[in-house]
Structure formats: C-alpha cells, structure tokens
Amino acid sequence: MKANCPILTDKTLEAFVSFSTHLYEPAYQTENQTELRALLTTSHPLSHYFQVIPIWVVEDDHILARAVLSIYPDDDAAYLGYFESENNPEAARLLFEEAVRQSRLHQKKQLEGPMNASFWLGYRLKTNHFNDQPYFSESYQPDYYQQLWEANSFKRTDRYFSNHYAPVDEQMSRHKYAKRYRQFQEKGYMIKSPSRATLDQDFAAVAELIQDRFKSFPVFKQVSPDEFISLFSNLKLILRKRYVKLAYTSAGEMVGFIISVPDYGNLFNRKQMTVKTLLSLVAIKCFSRRYIVMYMAVKEGHEGLGSAMVYALMTEYNKRRIQATSSYIHEGKVSGSYVFGSVERQSEYAYYVREVDDV
Q1: Nearest partner of 164 among 302, 60, 263, 36, judged by Cα
Q2: pLDDT tens for residues 148-206?
Q3: Which of 56, 60, 88, 144 is the most buried (most CB within 10 A)?
Q4: Packing angle of the helix pair 225-232, 199-214 (nearest 10 deg)
Q5: What is the number of other CB atoms lying within 10 angstroms of the CB of residue 94?
Q6: Is the separation of the CB atoms in 240 and 313 below 8 Å?
C-alpha cells in the first residue's frame, strides 16, 4: 500500500475520476465527474487560479483512496477535496500524510478541507442523516469519512447546517415577515420575480451582489463576472422564476435576492443522461413540491430586507404547500434565523483544518 501523485494518462485519469462510482449506490452519487476531469486536465474555467495535485493510495493496482490537493500561489493554506476512500483507516492516513507532505513542499502552513478546488465548486463534509438521499446541490459522503478526517489531526473549525421544513401552509405564523414586507413596500422597495426578458440582466446583478456579500465566508475566492456566469449559467435553465425573488430600491437598484430551485436530487450527476432521466428532470421542474433555498443575499445598508423577501417567497410556497430545505447555512450567520416552516430535521456539515507541521 502506497500513496503517490499519479501521472495522468488517459487510463489513470479515467481510473482516478471514476473511483468514487463503486463507493455509492446511484441515488447517492453526487460527485461531478465532468468537473473533476476538467480540473485535472486544466480545462476548467477556474483552472488558472490554482495548481491541482492528484493523490491516490494504491495496493496491487487497486485504488483504495484518492483526493485532489489545490495550491493557490498567494494563500497560506492548501485545500484538499474530491476526497473518496474505502473504509480503510490506513489508506486514508497515507493519503492525508502525502497531502501534508505536498503542502509542506509548497510552503503552506495549513491543510484545509474538504474543498473541491474552489469555494464555488463545493466544500464541507456531511456528518449526519446518511440514510437520506441527497437533495439538489448537496454533497453526500459515507458515515465513516468524518472519523477518517478527525483521526488524522484535522480539527473542525466551521459548522454548517441545512434545515428541512414541513410544507408551508396557512397555519404558520408569518406576522414578523409580513410586517417587514409592508415596511419595505412603504419605503418604495419592490420585491418581484424575474421575467424572461430581464433574466440575463438580473443574473448579472446577482453575480455582482453574491460576490460582495459572500466575501466574508472563510474560504471565499473571488472570480470574474464572466467566470461566475460560466459556472452558474445552467441555473437559469432549471429554476422556476416564481420561486426566485429579487428586491429593488425605488431607484431600480437590485439590493437583495433569494433563489430557490426544485429538488432535482442527484439527477444532474448521473453518469448517463438517459431519456428517462431527462423526462424526470422536466417533471420535477414542472410539478415538484420540494424546493431548495440555495442562495440569499442582501446588500449592506438594507438590513431587514431578508425577512421581506422570505415573506414574498413563502406566499408563493403556500399556494402549492411547498416543502423547502434551506441549504448550507453557516453557523452564526443571520440566514439561519429565517424559517420556511417548522423544522422536521437538520442536516449537519463540517469543515476542517490541520496544521502542516502537525505530524
């Protein structure tokens, strides 16, 4: 059993990328293998920001564990992502030690993760509710991954959670949100859904605002407007516009948004996009009563607007008794105080740091 950094030929690239397939049942596979392949071949839109180093542990030509180390030139930390492993503590230990060694060679002080190369591509480790099938945008990992990370000197530094709510109905009190909604209406604000004619313009404004408001997040990395649109342009195709709310001042400036999308599960990560899968996607977009609240931001100086936008979205949800999930809330952030119904359960996620000198 040995850890090393493989030279990626066509054969080893395919073996590296597809390794995770045998670890999961199809309904639980969430790794974006197309994205991973693009990163490893430096053809991803974000590849120019960092260097990626593939690492695997192999025994008798059998892969036991693999991950990708990302190195940013001006960052004190290295980032480990796309981590997948059999339930083999020794293989995981060897992989982590090689990641530490590579980080030290690049003069990094810390090793952090899980982070898939960039803030924009996914980070965090699932730590509970492993029997639940992943919701759209959720990264799923087996229950033993937490132990593998924590047994190798990684310390949890950040906690995230997703709230899964009961369906919205008339019984739920929305007085606080309704009051905020009226207050902002009286100030001349307008909260509405995008139209087909304005969607591109609205999306560009969202791109600018989301980067401004997310820059305080622990592992945030700035990208250009064109790169943001390249990463998220498909989002415009899969959302239902009525379940997206945009907030404007009386002068027409966008100062807030809340984006929710139908729960497509992991259908977009399936290895093959069959006719059956395509029909399922269409049906979900048209008829789903499960929605994922993915992104929300309010421009500084417009405090309280979040509650008003939540009210506008809940009003839409109530018409069809939508069941919502608020995804990836960073512990301690104000977004955790917004509710879309009574919480049925809460999924939790962890982010870890290990000191490179901690051998």
Answers
A1: 263
A2: 999 999 999 999 999 999 887 665 657 888 999 999 999 999 999 999 898 889 988 99
A3: 56
A4: 110
A5: 23
A6: no
Is-contact 261 288, C-beta < 8 A? no
Q: What share of the chain is helix, strand, coil (3-state, %, to 5)?
A: 35, 25, 35
Q: Is the peptide bond before 114 cis (omega within 30 degrees of 0)?
A: yes
Cα 129 to the chain's mean position, in Å? 17
What does the block give as tokens for 217?
């997040």
pLDDT for res 359: 42
Rounded distance, CA 336 to CA 106, Å?
A: 37
Q: At what angle do helices 305-320 and 175-186 cross, to 10 degrees?
A: 120
- Distance of alpha carbon 110 from alpha carbon 122, whole angstroms: 19
Nearest to 246 by CA among 296, 290, 292: 296
- What torsion do the CA atoms of 66, 72, 76, 77 make, to the nearest 10 degrees? -20
Is 194 within 8 Å of 312 (Cβ atoms)? no
Burial letters 311-330, b for 16+ CB under 10 A, else e: bbbbebbbeeebbbbbbbbb
Residue 28 burial by Cβ neighbours in a 10 Å radius (0-12, 13-18, 19+)? middle
DSSP single-letter state for residue 290: E
Helices (H), 197-304: 199-214, 225-232, 235-238, 275-287
Q: Average pLDDT for residues 205-215, to the nearest whole number? A: 88
With tokens 């008794």, the residue in question is 321
**What global pTM score does this model have?**
0.92
Helix (H) / strand (E) element for 125: namely: strand 125-126
In percent, the amount of the chain with pLDDT more than 70 equals 96
Task: Name, in order, each residue with C-beta under 8 angstroms of 175's C-beta and a sequence gap of 6 or more.
Answer: none
Residue closest to 254 by CA, chosen among 301, 213, 296, 206: 206
Q: Which residues contact 135 (CB under 8 A, 6 or more apart)?
A: 162, 263, 265, 290, 292, 325, 327
Report how far residue 222's alpha carbon sits from residue 229's, in angstroms, rounded to the nearest whole number: 13
